[in-house]
Design a protein that fits this description.
Distance between the termini: 82 Å
Helix content: 10-25%
Shape: globular
Strand content: 35-45%
Structural class: alpha+beta
Number of strands: 36
Strand order of the largest sheet: 4-3-2-1-5-6
């Protein structure tokens, strides 16, 4: 063969290889792009698994699972499989990998009580959902029942309690489908140069307050400044600088507003102050609160705006909010005061106590005007507390449990139900009851954090308000008209809870 011919032959081979590689690459691209769509992707594979499991069972294959559960979301397919021997495997399938899996081989053995509980729960499952559901709301369950294989579909926006029981028994993760809503901006508190501020809002009047210091070229401007806002119109009324009030640090929960917005209480390192919410003038001042190396300050206003509860490190004092007269001290004999919360009608005060590094683990309840607690309780790992508008019922979110607990503190009666939350949520940071008692707003630990609104008859979620920001703390106030107002950084947002309805309706 001539050299020129040999070269041409090599080039033809190389060209053929290039064409082959390019063709294979394009084929893979097409398969990768359109294959999952044609096959249904990871979701489609899990859906087809239920038919395959039925075929296995009908063929007498002992490898068919006792129970198969799948639900779908943007984060992958969450599945749970329980073998006929009782072994449990639960994880998330994202297509290219299995993530967050938990193997529980010892949780259900063939002769365990839990196995009997699981079979009883399967037997109690209700009929399949009658509605035509979009895929993101479908929850598929297949199982062996009375030596027959069945498959059912349920709505993740309205999960039956019998289905929740299966997830509780197996330890599998169940995320409710919760519609996302958006609040609207109703005002801005201050400019970016207003530093070290803390904020509060009135529950009845459209009034919000920010309190802090101006910063110029890295230096604080003394004395501090208070600004008043109309939360629907965003109108600012700046009070004159407060002579005699110094801010060296930013206290926690250092400002509170009466329900009618007429009086503001401020606590800083050097003292406790009352301010006229209409004129911005200083009404009264008192000495500093007990700190004992703890920089936190907690304020709450009750008794229909007449009484201020102010806590330093260990002591909770009662003050006349209008004239600054000290009325008494509440008996605690507890550790550090972590929070104070008053019911909407002002009749009930709840305080939480803990050490320097923990959340509140012990709690006390007072009736308005009394110095001795009417009820005490505890939570070993800490809890967040909300109070019903009439002060009768407490709702608790315990740190170690993905549950909410209702406590009638007068009778001591308790009841529990799951904390039905969105993807990856496990507990609530704050719990606020609506004035009519029909809604509960829970600030839950999503990332960034968001608020889930619950209906308080069924305790099922109505909506998720994604209103948090990373490294940004928020304050929330439920208004008498049913609006939830959020104060976050310089922004004020509002959400009308009365308009929310269940997606399953």
């Amino acid at each position: 063969m001539k050299p020129a011919g040999a070269v041409k032959g090599v080039l033809r081979v190389l060209a053929g290889l290039v064409v082959l590689v390019v063709t294979a690459y394009l084929a893979l691209m097409v398969v990768g792009t359109y294959g999952p769509r044609l096959s249904g992707g990871t979701r489609g594979r899990h859906t087809r698994d239920h038919s395959r499991f039925a075929s296995q069972f009908n063929a007498g294959d002992a490898n068919a699972p006792l129970l198969a559960m799948d639900w779908f979301s943007d984060h992958g397919v969450y599945f749970c499989r329980v073998s006929q021997s009782g072994d449990v495997h639960s994880a998330r399938d994202v297509g290219h990998a299995i993530q967050g899996g938990i193997g529980l081989p010892s949780r259900f053995s063939s002769d365990s009580t839990n196995r009997a509980l699981l079979e009883a729960a399967v037997n109690a499952l209700p009929p399949t959902s009658v509605n035509s559901l979009p895929k993101e709301r479908q929850l598929l369950i297949s199982s062996i029942c009375s030596n027959h294989w069945f498959a059912r579909v349920y709505d993740r926006a309205d999960v039956p309690p019998e289905v929740e029981k299966l997830y509780e028994l197996t330890g599998a993760y169940l995320g409710w489908y919760i519609p996302k809503v958006r609040g609207r901006e109703v005002g801005r508190l201050h400019s970016a140069h207003f530093s070290g501020s803390f904020v509060a809002a009135a529950s009845e009047a459209d009034v919000a307050v920010s309190f802090g210091q101006w910063v110029t070229n890295g230096a604080y401007y003394h004395p501090p400044i208070m600004e008043f806002w109309h939360t629907q119109k965003g109108i600012r009324q700046a009070a004159p600088p407060f002579k005699g009030i110094s801010m060296m640090t930013t206290p926690r929960e250092g400002v509170a507003v009466s329900p009618d917005g007429n009086t503001v209480a401020v606590a800083v390192v050097y003292g406790l102050y009352g301010v006229d919410g209409r004129t911005g003038k200083l009404l009264w001042q008192a000495g500093p609160l007990d700190r004992d190396s703890y920089t936190g300050t907690v304020l709450a206003i009750g008794n229909k705006g007449k009484t201020l509860y102010a806590a330093g490190a260990h002591v909770i004092d009662r003050w006349d909010l209008v004239n600054g007269r000290k009325l008494g001290s509440l008996g605690t004999n507890e550790l550090i005061v972590k929070f104070l919360k008053v019911s909407l009608d002002g009749s009930t005060l709840v305080a939480g106590f803990g050490d320097f590094n923990s959340s509140a683990t012990s709690f006390a309840v007072w009736e308005s005007g009394r110095d001795q607690p009417a009820f005490r309780f505890s939570s070993p790992h800490g809890a967040t507390v909300g109070i019903s508008p009439d002060g009768q019922t407490l709702v608790l979110s315990h740190r170690s449990e993905k549950k909410l607990e209702l406590l009638d503190w007068r009778s001591g009666k308790r009841s529990q139900f799951p904390l039905r939350g969105p993807y990856a949520s496990g507990s609530a940071y704050s719990l606020n009851w609506s004035p009519d008692g029909k809604r509960l707003a829970a600030y839950v630990d999503t990332y960034p954090a968001s608020i889930v609104i619950y209906e308080t008859t069924t305790w099922k979620p109505l909506a998720q308000w994604c209103c948090g920001k990373i490294m940004e703390r928020s304050e929330f106030v439920l208004k008498q008209d049913g609006r939830l107002v959020q104060l976050m950084g310089p922004e004020i947002y509002g959400l009308d809870l009365t308009r929310l309805k269940s997606v399953a309706e």
